[in-house]
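Notes from hallway chat w/ T.B., transcribed later so I don't forget. T.B. wanted the structure written out for a chain they're using in a teaching module, and asked if we could keep both sequence and C-alpha cells in one place. Agreed to drop them here.
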Amino acid sequence: MSAARKPVRMCVRCARITDDPVVVSEVHQATGPGFNVYACSTCAPHFPPVPDVLDLLEEALASRRTTEEITADSRASGRTQECESGEHDECTPMEVYESDDPAPDELPFFSITCTYACHSA
C-alpha cells in the first residue's frame, strides 16, 4: 500500500505551488459543482476568513421583510410594492437629442419618462 499523496495546489495570490494549501474561498455555482480557491500558508492570512453559509442564510432571513410589511410600507409611502421591495430602481428621464454631443442651447426632440406612478414627480 502506498503512502497517501499530499495535496498540491497553486496559491491564488503568489501563484506558487504549495503542498500545504489553505482554503481561502468557496465558489458556488448555479449549475454544476463549485470549487475551492487555495492559498499557500504564507499568503492565507491576507484573505478574510471563509464565511459559514448557514450564518449568511440566517442574516439574509433576519433582514427580510414579509409581504405584509412591504404592503404596509408601500401604502404609507405612496410607492408601489415593487419600489418598496427593491425590485426596480428609481428611473431617470432620458432625453433624446439630434446629436450625441448636444450644444448648450439645443433642445431635446423628446424625453422618455418612467411609467411607474411612484416615480412620477
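Follow-up for T.B.: The CA atoms of residues 5 and 19 lie 10 Å apart. Might be a good example for the class.
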